[in-house]
Design brief:
- The protein is an alpha/beta fold and 470 residues long.
- The longest helix is centred in the N-terminal third of the chain and has 29 residues.
- The protein is globular.
- The protein has 13 helices and eleven strands.
- Strand 8, helix 8 and strand 9 form a beta-alpha-beta unit.
- It comes from Centaurea solstitialis.
- Keywords: Membrane, Transmembrane, Transmembrane helix.
- InterPro entries: CAP10 (IPR006598), O-Glucosyltr/Glycosyltrsf_90 (IPR051091).
- This is Glycosyl transferase CAP10 domain-containing protein.
Length: 470
């Protein structure tokens, strides 16, 4: 990645408000005791008193100066105040808003290391499958790159973390992590059936029930220049405006999907659901030829159908948030993977589930049902869209990143250091669409509000009930 140089980054350090040494107070108490003795002893001349007093002042100054110097040198090794506690006495006395419910999955993703903690050996083991290593020390970001990454996934993932450091300076803990940018999760549970002490912690964009990958927001939230998809902070507003262009009942009464049908067998199968003149499946499937560019991929102009289909590609797809944001009732074909927010979605509340083994007939049934029950179908569409608008704001994307990294850092059994081959990551813009998207997604300083307050971990019975419900 050509933009990685030494010199950029976010400054930071340990807070000094709570002091760091008891030396000044101890010296002062001794001096007060000595002064008391001197005052009460009538046999000591005034000159002796003045001499001792001056010596005492000199010693006090020397001690105090020494304390300040030592504190300045050692401040970086003291525990940081990551997030304000409830009793921190913040002058604003503003209670942070609650995080969305899906934040609770952070605890589940990190549960494999709850008892063992995370050692340097574990992190180093994840290197086998990682594209790059990220190290944060004292609010500055460093990187080791190991392998080629498809398109600019790594560029915008790292850019997002730089923005997190800008948004919440001093709140991101020191840490060391390995990141993988391919589609599929790779840390298979089957490879670690007994010895849980060696599970490598690997950060990735998605997970499934068979893997231990730690789920992190994907690059597209900061832009995907290769397919002309803008940063989420701008695109989400355009999608909201796009919903107003055509009322739900005036939209095409069919299920719409547009994408690369060559990505995954499920999508090839979906293409069969197009009308062939003999059988009407109520679906309108459009293949997108990646080789011809992406001039016709304006997502905000695609909210023209009552129903939109979500289907996975090789693994999860970043398109889910764009599909759900359209006010159309989303038809979700049985997903096998999840990203960081999709575990907060509930079938028949936020979307309509489609049987993966009977795609065409299931789509036809859903559309027929929706066209006969327009108020119910419209409500499902609006509920899914509201979830995206309210619970997937960029602030919550950053808050999720922050809480995940904080909880991850709590598991560390060693102190992260800047490795020999790591270079500091700069806040460089680059050129072309990369520059444009970075400028659009850049945070312009610290947040004026605190991060959201996360709910406690799921109880076992809650998880069981949730899975049964889904």
């Amino acid at each position: 990645m050509g933009e990685i140089i030494v010199g950029g980054g976010v400054g930071g350090g340990a807070a000094a408000a709570d002091g760091g040494s008891a030396s000044p107070a101890t010296v002062t108490r001794k001096q007060l005791s000595m002064s008391g003795v001197l005052v009460k002893n009538p046999g000591v001349h005034a000159s002796a008193f003045v001499l001792v007093f001056l010596v005492t002042l000199f010693v006090t100054a020397a001690f105090f100066t020494r304390w300040v110097d030592v504190y300045a040198l050692t401040a970086q090794f003291r525990q940081k105040d990551i997030l304000p506690s409830a009793d921190s006495g913040d002058a604003s006395d503003v209670t942070p808003e609650s995080c969305p419910e899906y934040f609770r999955w952070i605890h589940e993703d990190l549960k494999p290391w709850k008892d063992t903690g995370i050692t340097k050996e574990m992190v180093e083991k994840a290197r086998e499958k990682a594209h790059f290593r990220l190290i944060i020390v004292d609010g500055r970001l460093y990187m080791e790159k190991y392998d080629y990454v498809f398109q600019t996934r790594d560029v915008f993932t790292i850019w997002g973390i730089l923005q997190l450091l800008e948004l919440y300076p001093g709140k991101v803990p020191d840490l060391d992590l390995m990141f993988m940018c391919h589609d599929w999760p790779l840390i298979l549970k089957a490879n670690y059936p007994d010895n849980t002490s060696v599970i490598p912690p690997l950060f990735h964009y998605c997970g499934d029930d068979l893997t231990y990958d730690i789920v992190f927001p994907d690059w597209s939230f900061w832009g995907w220049p290769e397919v002309n998809i803008m940063p989420w902070v701008k695109l989400s507003k355009e999608l909201e405006e796009g919903n107003q262009r055509k009322k739900w009942k005036e939209r095409e009464p069919y299920a719409y999907w547009k994408g690369n049908t060559y990505t995954g067998n499920a999508r090839k199968d979906l293409a069969k659901c197009n009308s062939d003149g003999k059988q009407e499946w109520n679906a309108r499937i459009h293949h997108l030829d990646w080789r011809k560019g992406f001039k016709d991929t304006d997502l905000a102009s695609q909210c023209t159908h009552r129903y939109k289909i979500y289907i996975e590609g090789n693994a999860w797809s970043v398109s889910e948030k764009y599909i759900l944001a359209c006010d159309s009732m989303s038809l979700v074909i049985t997903p096998h993977y999840y990203d960081f927010f999709s575990r907060g979605l509930i079938p028949t509340v936020h979307y309509w589930p489609i049987n993966e083994h009977k795609k065409c007939s299931s789509i036809k049934y859903a559309v027929d049902w929706g066209n006969k029950n327009t108020k119910k179908a419209q409500k499902i569409g609006r509920t899914g869209s509201r979830f995206i608008q309210k619970e997937l704001q960029m602030k919550f994307v950053y808050d999720y990143m922050l809480h995940l990294l904080i909880e991850y850092s709590k598991l560390f059994k060693y102190k992260p250091i800047i490795t020999k081959n790591a270079v500091e990551v700069c806040s460089c813009f680059g050129k072309g669409l990369v520059k444009e998207f970075k400028e659009l997604s850049k945070e312009m300083g610290p947040s004026k509000v605190d991060p959201c307050a996360m709910h406690p971990p799921f109880e076992d019975f809650e998880l069981h009930a949730l899975r049964e419900k889904n």
